[in-house]
Specification:
It contains six helices and three strands. The chain is of the alpha+beta class and 169 residues long. A three-stranded antiparallel beta sheet has the order 1-2-3, with helices on both faces. Helix 1 packs antiparallel against helix 2. The longest helix is centred in the middle third of the chain and has 55 residues. It is rod-shaped.
Length: 169
């Protein structure tokens, strides 16, 4: 093991959160860097520190030999706690939006049933009265049933939504 690798491992044991130590130690293995960076100029990993902050450790190619093998790298460590916090905020916001969408769908489904049931009665009432008038022709008060309005109302109710009109509101 290279002396630098041993030093990085000691730092890792003290500063890196236990659940990330094995991955960070593997990442810090300097002997394997030439193979891991054979086709890349940058190698990154993110990890959590024991104090809860987040960091990104990067190896950057500084020099390659005449065959293209990495001979020198720079090591850069950057605090990314703010970035991680924003990522978590976005995840929470996406989850909240998903829950709100599900609640809206349930609400509209319930409202659809609650609105359609009485409207079906309203739509059928003139026809029932028309049938009754056919039995008693002297009571022809409902000859002018607004058929076009009833058809429009039926069309609005034919969708799998509360009403087509709700999309416009």
């Amino acid at each position: 093991m290279l002396p630098a690798t041993a030093g990085l491992r000691k730092v890792c044991d003290v500063l890196v959160a236990p659940e990330y130590r094995a991955a960070v130690k593997t990442f810090m293995d300097l002997a394997s860097i030439p193979e891991r960076m054979a086709h890349d100029d940058i190698l990154d990993t993110e990890y959590k520190m024991v104090d809860g902050s987040w960091h990104r450790l990067s190896f950057l190619v500084k020099k390659r030999d005449e065959t293209g093998r990495v001979t020198h790298v720079l090591c850069a460590v950057r605090s990314i706690s703010d970035v991680k916090r924003r990522e978590l905020d976005l995840v929470y916001q996406a989850d909240a939006a998903k829950r709100e969408g599900e609640m809206k769908a349930r609400f509209l489904s319930n409202m659809s049933h609650d609105i359609r049931t009485p409207l079906n009665g309203v739509i059928e009432l003139p026809f029932a009265i028309g049938e009754q008038n056919a039995i008693h022709p002297e009571e022809q008060n409902f000859d002018e049933i607004p058929v076009a309005g009833i058809r429009a109302l039926r069309e609005c109710m034919s969708e799998n939504d509360v009403l087509k009109l709700s999309d416009e509101l």
